[in-house]
Amino acid sequence: MTPKDQPIYVVTRGDYSDYRIEGVFTDRSLAEKCADLMDDASVETFIPNQHRKELDAGLIFYSIAISREGDVDTDLSYTDSPRNETPPKWAMYGTLWLNIWARDMEHATKIANEKRISLIAQNLWAPDHFPNEAITLPQLQNRLAKQRMEIKNGKD
To answer: The pTM is what?
Structure first.
């Protein structure tokens, strides 16, 4: 990691219109010390120039929701911004929300569909796996692995 790629630690407080930055640090321990001195403060980690490669390539940020059947919703004003890009999330009833960098909407939809096909092929998106809460893909994978282990141990 080069010095310009070093994480930046931001102390924040509040929610929605009350959300604010209280301090910016290059040292995590100092950020945590500052946050500990405030009510309901937290430390968020950011990587500077995180999306430089995508921006230099002329890519555009898209948020897409795709159903197991391949229906796509691109009108997602409620999704995360690129600065807080998150892993893929499962929404209620098995819709996958994706944040994607792509050349255009057609390219973004193609990437989302490839992810959908991959998840189905890996049996990570079977109808009985649909959670009824928001869950990250790694959380779903862990849950399924535990279920498989329980089934395996029950057979022994």
So the answer is: 0.60
- Nearest-5° Cα angle at 57, 87 to 64: 35
Q: CB of 89 within 8 A of CB of 134?
A: yes
| Statement to judge: residues 36 and 73 lie in one domain | no
Q: What does the alpha-carbon distance between residue 100 and residue 94 come to, in Å, rounded to a whole number? A: 19
**Measuring CA to CA, how many Å separate 53 from each of 17, 49, 59, 77, 101?**
31, 9, 9, 25, 10
Task: Report if residue 37 sits inside a domain.
Answer: yes
Is pLDDT at 82 greater than 60 in this prediction? no
Co-location of 67 and 131 in the same domain: yes
User: pLDDT tens across 44-75, in order?
Assistant: 999 898 888 999 999 998 888 888 888 887 76
Which range of residues forms the domain containing residue 17? 3-49
Say how many domains are in the chain: 2
